[in-house]
């Protein structure tokens, strides 16, 4: 992974995208979104993760965040959520795509020596330091407009798994520090 996609400034605010392997639509089920939200909340409480904005889409997650050891926090988040999301898929009696998803995650893991039986997230992550106000505003707008452009909602704040509610003056699912 090139340096431009790594968090090299410990005091920086970063736009990060985490993507499910093969862009599989996993976050179509509320249970899986809640598991990810709970994990993000844990990182906020125990690992000094500050969320400025976030959005869970069906197959990827956008975050605008900072943390003293951001690469370590993201590594731990991905490792934990990977294990628990795969287990949630395995044990969900309503999961009609169970065999296909598990096959997909297993196939991805077989291509990588750094994974166990299943790989949920794509390797690495896309880190962009938001060190200019214009870039920060552009990424914030992009993140909140993602569900609108995908055709899921008419207005950003209608998407439950996003900080757009907080920016619209409503209470969102996770605690965020609003950017001005």
Look at the structure and name the CATH superfamily. Answer: Transposase IS200-like
The figure for the number of domains is: 1
Q: What would you call the shape?
A: globular
- DSSP strand (E) fraction? 5-15%
Number of strands: 4
Rg over alpha carbons:
16 Å
Order of helices and strands: EHEEHHEHH
Average pLDDT over all residues:
93
Distance between the termini: 31 Å
Largest β-sheet summary? 4 strands, antiparallel
CATH domain topology: Alpha-Beta Plaits
CATH architecture: 2-Layer Sandwich
User: Helix segment count?
Assistant: 5
Helix proportion: 40-55%
* The first-level CATH class name: Alpha Beta
| Global structural class | alpha+beta
> Unreliable segments (pLDDT under 50, ≥5 consecutive)?
none
Strand order of the largest sheet: 2-3-1-4
Domain Transposase IS200-like: 9-146
Pfam families: Y1_Tnp
Protein name: Transposase
Summarize the structure.
The protein is an alpha+beta fold and 180 residues long.
Write up this protein.
The longest helix has 22 residues, at 70-91. The protein contains five helices and four strands. It is of the alpha+beta class. It starts with 13 loop residues before the first strand and ends in a 13-residue tail after the last helix. Helix content is 41%, strand content 13%.
Offer a few descriptive terms:
single chain; alpha+beta; Alpha-Beta Plaits; 4-stranded antiparallel sheet
Chain-wise SSE layout:
Elements: E1 14-19, H1 30-46, E2 50-56, E3 60-66, H2 70-91, H3 98-110, E4 126-129, H4 133-149, H5 164-167
Antiparallel strand pairs: 1-3, 1-4, 2-3
Helix pairs in contact: 1-2
């Amino acid at each position: 992974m090139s340096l431009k996609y790594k968090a090299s400034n410990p005091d920086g605010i970063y736009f990060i995208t985490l993507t499910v392997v093969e862009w599989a639509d996993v976050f179509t089920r509320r249970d899986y979104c809640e598991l990810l939200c709970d994990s993000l909340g844990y990182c906020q409480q125990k690992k000094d993760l500050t969320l400025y904005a976030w959005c869970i889409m069906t197959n990827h997650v956008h975050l605008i965040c900072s943390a003293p050891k951001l690469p370590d926090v993201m590594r731990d988040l991905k490792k934990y959520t990977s294990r628990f999301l795969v287990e949630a898929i395995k044990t969900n009696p309503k999961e009609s795509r169970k065999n296909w998803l598990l096959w997909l995650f297993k196939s991805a893991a077989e291509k990588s020596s750094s994974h166990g039986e299943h790989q949920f997230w794509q390797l690495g992550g896309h880190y962009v330091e938001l060190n200019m106000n214009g870039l920060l505003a552009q990424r914030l707008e992009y993140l909140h407009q993602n569900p609108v452009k995908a055709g899921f909602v008419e207005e950003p704040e209608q998407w439950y798994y996003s900080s757009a509610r907080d920016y619209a003056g409503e209470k969102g699912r996770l605690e965020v520090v609003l950017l001005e």
